[in-house]
Amino acid sequence: MVNRRDSVRNCTLDRCVDRSAMKGLDWIKVSTNIGVDGDMEHMSDAAFRTYIELLAASSALLSDGRVVQRDARKRCNTRRLGNALAELSASGHVILDGDDIVLPKYGKWQCTREEVEDLRAKARERVTAYRQRNKAVTYDDCSQNVREQSKSKSQSKSNPSLSPPISPSFSPLVEKLVGLCRNKVPGWKPNDKDYPTVALGVERLGERGMEDLIMQLATYQAATNKYTALQRTLANWINREKPLTEKQTTNTDDEIDKLARMTDEAYEAAHAR
């Protein structure tokens, strides 16, 4: 034989599980004219308050307008709940169905359990889609290929190649001067721009001028350690120097002037004697 107290306790526990499975709403929809319009205008304060509290209880429990009287007694603060329910039942606002209190117009204005579940499911889908679109990329999400590429790039940056490939288009003279840059200039990091830079310098300044310029840069860098991008510094120094053709022209003019002065001085000395 099943004890009635145990059966009531089991029902209460089952109902608690159902309530905890899905949280109810914290609000209800009420018209601003509810107190002055329709049948509610002539109701007592107790009946009016009880009706609002029954709406709130059904919304909180998501019971679709059906409230157990035990829950009504817990949630309604009306002193004489039986009299208020009798008045609401007489006016047709509630239906007393055994131990349940039914609100017949609940589904017309309030959200039903099915509607709440549907809205929350759509909200979860939107949140999931947003998180998938804005998901942060972590190390574990990367593929093995990407990790290997990142590792190889970091190794190449930390250990630069000391012997870049020599282009066959550059002459042995350029290769010799590039070696001079790498061996004499402190902090020189070899790369593929060494050969074009030195070739430009040889073209503009000649072998001797380019060698002197490299040694000047090596001396200045050893004394000051000022520059970090030494290839760019060497290119700037090359552009700063006068081209070889201008130097030759200047030297020739100087020599002509010197010879002219010497000739004039010799002519004046000869006439002076």
The low-pLDDT segments are 7-20, 161-168
Tell me the strand order in the biggest sheet. 1-3-2
Looking at the structure, what is the overall shape?
rod-shaped
Determine the mean pLDDT: 76
Distance between the termini: 159 Å
Count, helices: 11
Characterize this entry briefly.
With 273 residues, the chain is mostly helical.
Description:
The structure is a single chain. Helix content is 65%, strand content 3%. The protein has a three-stranded antiparallel β-sheet with strand order 1-3-2. By secondary structure, the protein is mostly helical. The chain starts with a helix and ends with a helix. The radius of gyration is 49 Å and the shape is rod-shaped.
Keywords, please?
273 residues, single chain, 65% helix, 11 helices, rod-shaped
List the helices and strands and how they pair.
Layout: H1 4-21, H2 45-61, E1 66-68, H3 69-75, H4 81-91, E2 95-97, E3 100-102, H5 106-109, H6 113-133, H7 144-158, H8 172-184, H9 194-224, H10 230-240, H11 244-272
Antiparallel strand pairs: 1-3, 2-3
